[in-house]
Amino acid sequence: MNCTLTRLLSSLALCAVTVAHCQAQIQRTSLLDRKSSADVLVQEARKLSAAWTRVSAMQALKKYQTARSIYQDAGDLRNQALVSLEMGKVQEWTGDPPAALVSYERALSISRQSHDQSAIAAALNRLGFYYIERGDYDKALDFGKQAQQLSSAISDRSNEAYALLLIGTTKYNQREQRDAKAYLQLSLELCKALHDKSAQAQVLEALGHVNHELGNAKEALQLFLDALELATRANDLAIEARILNGLAISYSIVGEKQEAVERYREALAILEKMGNSRQIAVALAGLGYIYYTVAQNERSLNYYSRALSLYRSIGDREGESIVLGRMGEISEGLWDKKKAAMYYEQLTGVARDLKDPILESYVLNWSGDVYAPTNKRQALALYEQALALSRKHSNPRLEAYTLNRLGYTHAWLGEIDAAKKFYDTALERAQTMGDRELESLTLYNLAALERDHNGLAAARTLIERSLKIIESLTMDMGARELRASYFATVHQQYEFYIDLLMQLHQQNPSADFGSLALEASERSRARSLLDMLRESGADIRKGVDPQLLEQEQSVRAKLRTAIQKRMMAFSRPHTRQEINDLQQEIVSLTTEYEQFAAEIRQRSPQYAALTQATSLTAKQIQAVLDDDTIMVEYALGDRRSFAWTISSDSVASFELPDRATLEKLARVVHEGLSKDPRDAIQPAGYAAAMKTLSRILLEPIAKYRSKKRVVVVADGALQYIPFSTLELPDDSGDARLIAHYELVNLPSASALAVQRNSLSDRKPAPRMLAIVADPVLESNDSRLLNARSKRSAAREGELGDVSKLDRVLRDVEIGDGLRGLHRLSLTETEAKTLYSLIPPEQVLKALGFEANRNIVTGDGLANYRIVHFATHALLDNQVPEMSGIILSMFDRKGQQQDGFLQLYEIYNLKLSADLVVLSACQTALGKDIRGEGIVSLTRGFMHAGAPRVVASLWNVDDAATADLMGYFYRAMIVDRLAPAAALRAAQLRLSKEKRYQSPYFWAGFVLQGEWNQPNSFLASH
Question: Are residues 948 and 838 in the same domain?
Fold first, then answer.
């Protein structure tokens, strides 16, 4: 019995052990399965986080959290720590720093529990980089040193490399650049030994930034290029985007602004998908700086404002401070002292909190600039403090700019030796760094110093070196608008050079320095127009990647939509902020469109094959003139201005008053000429200003009475004056210039030569006249009555909303141009008069509803020798590309349509016209870019293929214009006069009519471009 019981109990015990063993085995199997599933979750999460989108990041976090719970249940400390680190990275990237810090600290705590030294080092590294982002460099350095010591002790080369990167990056932020470079070089050696491409890319990126600060611009550029190649091969988008931002900074420093803009835009394309606010802010601020350096202030402020919002949202005080300083500088340059003071005040508060020596140096420089106009000694003291800080913390670029400030201030005080010493040191710094813009500026400052102390020969050598750098920098810019704006910022160097050559001419008239000065004047003007005219006859889209062309078209469509939104915003209650937001969107899209256009030119085989346009020599200018023509070219300067008269056999030069004097006179004269005498009296001093301006400007041509034509190359505010109204001195009869000469305007002699060359082989258009006139602009236009009577009451209400647009637009100006969309009733009469002179088969009549965008942007106008527009024009002085011509706003059914033809669209028209007539208000006006001239509708049509354009200088009278155009066309068609002669005849005839004697009625239209009669002009009539 006992034995049986014993056997039974033993059997039961054995069964229990077996069951327990089986249960344990099942649990182990289940745990292994769960851990395997956790491993899978981690792999999936890593792939999701590598996509760098906010949605994928949040999905990755959920997977990491689930995996970490499984590892925690399993007691797997190592994987818990690893997952916590990965979670921290994602949380930091998604904008949750507190959660990221918890994750990093958890990883460190768990790693210490497991005594996993490599994991401890990894967590220390992550915490260090976390505190760098927060600006707590002391903590970052402490974690970096701990990580470096630990990883070195256990021969963990990977973590040691990252620890050295961490220490080097911290030293960079603490402005200890030489120490930073030493640590980063050690890190790079370890990364190369490990063959870790991603890590190498990060270290090279950091070394690039350090070399920027040390003034090694070319070395920094190469480091970023190498880093970008490695990041691309490692397929690490986050690092690639950061490197692109750094590369853009390098290109900007060496003066390659076009490359810089393109790299920033590439970075933004990646970063906006990732949602990386900090790096987006870096790119936006970088673009703001580039446009700041070329004086495109509106665009610059647009980018800086967006960057400032982002920096503030993420608490980046350093980024905020730099942006505030730049916005203060821009506002000060725009004479908005109130805003400038506001930005500087905010900057001072941020700088005080940060205690950053380099930022403090910037603030001291800006403060010195504020004091410089009134207290030079106080400015010097501030600049000297700034110089000491930039030297102490090894920032040679900032040092060089401060040295230039010191040199300029000492020169102004007459302390020549001190000024030269500072300039010489600045030049050495600029050359060592490879900063070509800074080198050019310093050479210019040295040239001015030599010129002011009778060292004319030395000054000439220095300024010619400066201009050579400018020419090189200009060539590197693909976007025409960027190139034109940059050229405007350095135009003072050309003005200086012209003045210097004229000084040499006065000393030695026989050496022909006067002709050299004329050639310098030609070099200094309308450079972008030369390039545009050079490419106008080439199909530069041929052979370009279709995808790139599609992207350009997409941006163009977005731009049109944004402009339509802006116009429609005025049809309803709106806020200033709403309009400002729309304007910012337009500016951004315009910039993007310009970049695509520049890239198309760069990639175009047709564009690459074009011969580079160059300015003419004095003898070549003479060669473009016939024996009946005298050209007078003006160049305004801050000290004095100059004029040259050029004929086919002579060149003479004249000294005129300074820019301020001439432009003040010109403004008074323009104001008086452009006022309707029926509604307003002439401004005070108008008669005296007209007499004085006439004497100054016409004295150079008074002796050329045998010529029959004067070609005017004006400058500055002189471009707004119709020379036809000026009066020759000592003339007993009709003293007006128009009574003696045909008048023609040119942006430059070189532009005419390029245009003649590009159009020399063009076949004449087969038909005579295309007239686009009297568009339907208002919903209450009588031509819409029939359509409206057929519409439903509901549709009537919709049209009523549209009519509000018309009423508002009549009262609101955009820029200086939008005056109101009312019908110009006499344009119909004008059109009928013109086409009655020509056989019907030779005329395209696009009137009323037909005067729409489709007729203009299609191919129809390409078949006509004269293209005539009689309608409203919109002038936008702030963003000239937004200027344009208003066409029919409604179709025959009364439905609203897009009726705005923008300037950039005019550039892209393909015309065979010998003449374009813009019978509208202010069509010859636009934004005056120094050195480039007026960016106007006239320029757009010249690029589209018109060798001559008739346009207006003010708001012309409707009835007078209709009569003037009738006389003008009769002179061309019936009397067979060339356009320049015909315009003169028409204006003289109109001025003799009693009601139109005032120049307001007849002098507003000017002819720009070719004066010779085209062989094909009247061939078929």
Answer: yes
- Domain contains 273: no
pLDDT, mean of residues 798-803: 35
What pLDDT is recorded for position 296?
Answer: 81
* Residue 783 burial class via C-beta count within 10 angstroms: exposed 0-12, middle 13-18, buried 19 and up: middle
36 vs 498, which has greater pLDDT?
498
Last residue of a domain, one of 603, 626, 646: 603
Tell me, yes or no, whether 779 and 892 share the same domain.
yes
Same domain, 146 and 91: yes
Tell me the two tokens of residue 901: 């033809």
* Highest mean pLDDT out of 548-562, 942-956, 958-972, 982-996: 982-996
Which residues, in sequence order, are bridge partners of residue 884?
874, 902
CATH number at residue 625: 3.30.420
pLDDT computed for residue 985 by the predictor: 96
Flag whether pLDDT at 65 surpasses 70.
Answer: yes
Domains: count for the chain: 4
pLDDT of residue 792: 42
Q: How far apart are CA 930 and CA 283, in angstroms?
A: 28
The CATH number linked to 954 is: 3.40.50
CA pair distance 877, 135, nearest whole angstrom: 43
Are 117 and 83 part of one and the same domain? yes
Torsion of CA 440, 442, 447, 448, to 10 degrees: 120
Residue 849 lies in a domain: yes
The yes-or-no verdict on residue 298 having pLDDT over 60 is yes
What are 210-220's pLDDT values in tens digits? Answer: 998 888 888 99
Domain coverage including residue 219: 33-261
Residue 74, SS3 per DSSP: coil
Per-residue tokens: 525: 């003007």
CB of 409 within 8 A of CB of 383? yes
- Residues with Cβ within 8 Å of 240's Cβ and at least 6 positions away in sequence, in order, are 201, 228, 231, 232, 270
Q: 432 lies in a domain?
A: no
DSSP 161-223: HHHHHHHHHHHHHTT-HHHHHHHHHHHHHHHHHHT-HHHHHHHHHHHHHHHHHHT-HHHHHHH
Same domain, 698 and 804: no
- Laid out side by side, the sheet with 843-848 consists of 650-656, 641-647, 629-635, 709-713, 742-745, 1005-1009, 948-952, 915-918, 864-870, 767-775, 843-848
Tell whether 524 is covered by a domain.
no
The encoded tokens of residue 777 equal 């602009």
pLDDT at 230: 92
Are 777 and 917 in the same domain?
Answer: yes
Task: Tell me the C-alpha distance between 680 and 684, whole Å.
Answer: 12
- Whether residue 142 is found in the same domain as residue 171: yes
Q: Residue 498's pLDDT is what? A: 94
